[in-house]
């Protein structure tokens, strides 16, 4: 039997796909450009924007005779046993392959923002907690584990990571981001991509681009970011993840920037992404994003018009289910309204990816080949390590923490005894199980209350909720105050409930008007503080909340950003002292709740000054975090007299960090850049490097940052990315506001214009000391 060239693994993927495309009909090529969402609900509350209105009916048996591009969330739409789900997916794939002329299976995708979003899979900390860990290597290890779990059940593509940079903490999806700094987001995000791709899973970068800069922090609202903000803050994390991570897919954002929706922007999806950056993978729609060009953005009058706009821009795959790329597109091509070459271009990209994944090979098999355990002991250990590293000790002024082992503790608050307090909105229990109240959680999630009792078995622990998360009822205050008055210390566990589209206080579509603690939790905290008993505030949240009202009145403050299924033991471990806190803030914590959405990346007029009575200075700065041990920074070199280097030059700064305390701990050394004079306004400081160091008592390490002048580059008035001559300061710091050492530089030579291969990362070397 003669094998068709497209089946021949000895040929290049390009040659195989060219042969296959030449054999396919218009309908068969178009079928590769959409997904199908089996089981998606068309009534009640959905898990995607406007799901009920945008989901269409179709005849599955007739549809798959043409082939099929993608299967949408076969595990993440409803509770399914992982082993049975893998078998069901294999059966569906066989049906798809048998129904079409070419025997090509679909590519299956799933959400994996904080772990595989399916029943009985490990719920890891949310991305904001990854940022708080400042530990890219551990995030990469976690992503590899997630990827292996996806592959084990037959999934090919993961819709993560989110690389949006926080611009306004009132936005509901802050919990899904890594932080408010593009360097931190880029380095941690690239690590996640490397881990996922190392397992053979196609990583999908979200949301390209500008989504987090929506006006008024409203989900899907227009983006009014300027050209330089877009280039210097929004885009760099995507460059990191493509160049250093090797991501093979990008998801177009819902939003429009200056009137042009991302899903219909050839300047973004083709000229920048493909021509400038050299991306060769697939661009997929955010759910219903193609249809939104007609129904929400109103730049197209018909479904075919929306399909044309998206395809012409460079959007290859319509997700989650067919609408615009189905019959309307085919009819418009046959009528001569849309060139078939656009179909060919997109189908070629899709089929190249399927070829890379082995889906065009004759020996392809959908059958699972290994034992399936999506919440293994190894997974839980990873979840615990990341949760522990992500907990941030914001304040401990009098050393109240760690708690004494035999103390009397009043645990108060609506987040103390609720397992869901640990999870973000893209965890399966929060995202899907709320629609299936009779189905058990599927994974073990100890609460803070349970974990604290286990950590301190000799302590006398009482508990009362005090109030709900966002309900106005204060009836429980009286009992909370009474329990606190009887105790030596009160642990107040407050925070968010993750949800979707207004069904939570944090999560997609759960935007807020200000940064007050939800509901009456702030008033509850006032009542507890008024007892005179020392209060330890523990926050389990998806965003930072304003804490200036209680500054100086609390015994300690602990911040955890939805730390996952092992978050309860991680937080309790910090309270007991078993865990030495090492997290650092990936977002600033504000003083006051309203009127001044702010991140630390501000030019001079964005800082406090006499021009306004409003002071936006945060209570706790980006990068801040305390420890139970003491670190000494010494033997700094690279400072002194101002050093001259060229605009293509380098300069090293080094210091030794010594653990001068009595217990093991981790320090995070941060390198910031200050540009005193530039041709456009610049952030007063911005992160350009960091290094996490884990040190035993008495141990020290020497850290060297190799600064290259290209790390000072920015976008000038003509839209060029340039390095300008002039003065610079390198600041070694414990946070953006706590500078320890400064190196003065003067860049000489001409203005240098940089291309797409500019340096993104500050090389760092860690060495042992004698």
From TrEMBL:
The UniProt keywords, alphabetically, are: Hydrolase
Q: Which residues form the Fibronectin type III-like domain?
A: 667-736
The identity of this protein, by name, is Glycoside hydrolase family 3 N-terminal domain-containing protein
- Print the organism lineage: Bacteria, Bacillati, Actinomycetota, Actinomycetes, Kitasatosporales
Q: Which InterPro entries match?
A: Cellulose_deg_GH3, Fn3-like, GH, Glyco_hydro_3_C, Glyco_hydro_3_C_sf, Glyco_hydro_3_N, Glyco_hydro_3_N_sf, Ig-like_fold
* Coiled-coil spans in chain: none
Which Pfam families does this chain map to? Fn3-like, Glyco_hydro_3, Glyco_hydro_3_C
Q: Which family does it belong to?
A: Belongs to the glycosyl hydrolase 3 family.
**Keyword Signal among record annotations:** no
Q: Which SMART domains match?
A: Fn3_like
Gene Ontology molecular-function annotations: hydrolase activity
């Amino acid at each position: 039997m003669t094998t068709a060239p497209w089946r021949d693994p000895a040929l290049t993927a390009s040659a195989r796909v060219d042969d296959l495309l030449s054999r396919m009909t218009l309908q068969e090529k178009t079928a590769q450009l959409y997904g199908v969402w089996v089981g998606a609900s068309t009534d009640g509350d959905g898990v995607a924007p406007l799901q009920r209105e945008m989901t269409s009916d179709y005849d599955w048996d007739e549809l798959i005779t043409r082939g099929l591009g993608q299967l949408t969330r076969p595990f993440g739409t409803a509770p399914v046993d992982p082993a049975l789900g893998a078998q069901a997916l294999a059966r569906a794939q066989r049906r798809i392959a048998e129904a079409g002329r070419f025997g090509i299976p679909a590519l299956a995708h799933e959400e994996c923002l904080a772990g595989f979003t399916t029943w009985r899979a490990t719920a890891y900390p949310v991305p904001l907690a990854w940022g708080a860990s400042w530990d890219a290597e551990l995030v990469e290890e976690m992503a590899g584990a997630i990827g292996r779990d996806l592959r084990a059940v037959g999934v090919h593509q993961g819709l993560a990571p989110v690389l949006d940079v926080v611009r306004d903490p009132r936005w509901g999806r802050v919990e899904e981001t890594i932080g408010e700094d593009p360097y931190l987001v880029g380095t941690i995000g690239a690590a996640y991509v490397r881990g996922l791709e190392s397992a053979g899973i196609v990583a999908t970068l979200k949301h390209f681009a500008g989504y987090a800069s929506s006006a008024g922090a409203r989900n899907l609202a227009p983006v009014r970011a300027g050209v330089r903000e877009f280039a210097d803050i929004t885009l760099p994390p995507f460059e990191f993840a493509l160049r250093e991570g090797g991501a093979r897919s990008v998801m177009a954002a819902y939003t429009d920037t200056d009137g042009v929706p991302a899903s219909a922007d050839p300047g973004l999806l083709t000229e920048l992404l493909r021509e400038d950056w050299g991306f060769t993978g697939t661009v997929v729609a955010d759910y219903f994003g193609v249809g939104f060009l007609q129904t929400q953005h109103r730049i197209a009058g018909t479904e075919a018009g929306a399909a044309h706009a998206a395809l012409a821009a460079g959007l290859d795959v319509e997700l989650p289910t067919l609408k615009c790329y189905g019959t309307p597109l085919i009819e418009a091509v046959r009528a001569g309204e849309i060139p078939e070459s656009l179909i060919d271009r997109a189908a070629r990209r899709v089929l190249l990816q399927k070829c890379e994944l082995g889906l065009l090979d004759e020996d392809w098999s959908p059958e699972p080949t290994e034992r399936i355990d999506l919440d293994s002991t190894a997974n839980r250990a990873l979840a615990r390590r990341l949760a522990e590293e992500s907990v941030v000790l914001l304040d401990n002024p009098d050393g109240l923490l760690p708690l004494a082992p035999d103390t009397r503790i009043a645990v108060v608050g609506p987040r103390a005894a609720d397992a869901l307090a640990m999870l973000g909105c893209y965890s399966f229990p929060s995202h899907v199980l709320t629609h299936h109240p009779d189905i058990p959680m599927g994974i073990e999630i100890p609460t803070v209350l349970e974990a604290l009792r286990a950590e301190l078995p000799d302590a006398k622990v009482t508990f009362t909720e005090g109030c709900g998360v966002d309900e106005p009822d204060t009836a429980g205050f009286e009992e909370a105050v009474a329990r606190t008055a009887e105790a030596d210390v009160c642990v107040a566990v407050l925070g968010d409930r993750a949800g979707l589209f207004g069904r939570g206080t944090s999560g997609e579509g759960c935007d807020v008007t200000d940064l007050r603690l939800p509901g009456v939790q702030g008033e509850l905290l006032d009542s507890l503080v008024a007892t005179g008993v020392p209060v330890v505030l523990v926050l389990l949240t998806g965003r930072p909340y304003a804490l200036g009202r209680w500054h100086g009145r609390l015994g300690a403050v602990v911040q955890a950003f939805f730390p996952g299924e092992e978050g309860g033991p991680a937080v309790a471990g910090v309270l007991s002292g078993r865990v030495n806190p090492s997290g650092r803030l990936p977002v600033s914590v504000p003083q006051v709740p309203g009127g001044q959405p702010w991140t630390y990346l501000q030019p001079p007029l964005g800082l406090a000054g006499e021009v306004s009575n409003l002071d936006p200075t945060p209570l706790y700065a980006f990068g801040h975090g305390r420890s139970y041990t003491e670190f000494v920074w010494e033997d700094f070199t690279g400072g002194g007299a101002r050093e001259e280097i060229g605009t293509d030059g380098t300069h090293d700064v080094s210091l030794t960090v010594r653990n001068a305390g009595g217990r093991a701990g981790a320090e995070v050394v941060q390198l910031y850049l200050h540009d005193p004079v530039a041709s456009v306004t610049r952030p007063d400081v911005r992160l350009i490097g960091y290094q996490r160091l884990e040190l035993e008592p008495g141990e020290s390490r020497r850290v060297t940052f190799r600064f290259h002048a290209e790390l000072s580059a920015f976008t000038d008035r003509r839209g060029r990315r340039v390095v300008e001559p002039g003065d610079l300061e390198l600041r070694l710091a414990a946070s953006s506001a706590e500078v320890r050492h400064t190196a003065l530089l003067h860049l000489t030579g001409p203005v240098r214009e940089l291309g797409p291969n500019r340096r993104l990362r500050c090389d760092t070397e860690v060495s042992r000391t004698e």
